[in-house]
Amino acid sequence: MSRRRTRSGPLSAGEATGDGEEELEGWDSLEEYLASEAARTSGAGQSPAPTADLRGPKAASTRHYFSRAESQPAETFTFPLRFGDRTIDWVSAHGVFSKQQLDFGSRLLLEVAEIPATGRLLDLGCGTGALGLLALASRVESGGSGEDRLWACLSDISDHALACASANRERLGLTGSAGIVQGEFLAPFRSGVFGTVLFNPPIRAGKAPILETLTRMRRVLEPDGTLWVVARVQQGAKSLLAHLENVFEGAAQVRARRKGYLILRAGGRKADGI
Ligand SMILES: C[S@@+](CC[C@H](N)C(=O)[O-])C[C@H]1O[C@@H](n2cnc3c(N)ncnc32)[C@H](O)[C@@H]1O
User: Fold this and answer.
1) Which domains are present in the chain?
2) Alpha helices for 130-236 (secondary structure H)
3) 161 CA closest ligand 1 atom index
């Protein structure tokens, strides 16, 4: 096990969980680590399930509308997802967000967001993994090599969503570049680890947990890190913008507006003119 500390390579277990001690080799190790930590803290004393409860004490009060551990395995199917000049057989399941097509807002976010070629990206509330995986796919070939390339973390509360995200990751050949973490919003992640966060918030979870998540977003971002959010005006996009302006001390703006959807950008380098 390596104890190297790197800002551009895969997220270490310590960085993900906040214990800050041991650094693991890669995303698969991270998942194993998180699952075993969850088992240890719940006192299970047996082999942990990969979907073990990772909630922190603070996040436990957050309401959400998805069951973390669905009683049945996901019933998956595929649909043709057109993206750029590719059509991908995209794995989806009943009960996941936008199950039969790429959501208009997600597509717009992918069109507008500036995805770096290197560093670490978080797809928060990843659903089937569209934002993180398609962003990664668009950058992976133009990126660097070894640890100097873009890494993505796909994170969600839902077992079924993560089963789809995992299958899509494999289909796109991105298993070595993307990790999967189950947890409540930002609870699994420690400070300053992501250069980019993409977030299509689960509006049905309620306004309070989303505002709370936006408040905490600065913590998980690197100092110059950038947050991209998509939301509909009729679902409160403008109040999310006002909140981001407050949290990011003015460094928040609307970067695109189409068909009632706003793409919001917050944070980033001062040189970028916000
Ligand atoms: C609007 S969907 C976006 C899905 C995907 N990012 C996309 O753009 O297609 C919001 C996602 O947030 C997830 N979610 C809901 N409550 C959550 C929570 N408390 N913590 C983490 N993710 C949550 C849902 O399971 C859902 O996949």
Assistant:
1) 55-272 (3.40.50.150)
2) 130-140, 159-171, 207-220
3) 27
pTM of the model: 0.80
Reduced to 3 states (helix: H, G, I; strand: E, B; else coil), residue 91 is strand
If you take atom 8 of ligand 1, which residue's CA is the nearest one?
106
pLDDT tens, residue by residue, 115-174: 999 999 999 999 999 999 999 999 876 666 667 789 999 999 999 999 999 999 999 999
Strand, helix or coil for residue 215: helix
**CA pair distance 26, 225, nearest whole angstrom:** 22
Count of C-beta atoms within a 10 Å radius of residue 99: 18
Ligand 1 pocket mutation, candidates 62, 91, 126, criterion most atoms within 8 A of CB: 126
Ligand 1 closest atom vs CA 127: 27
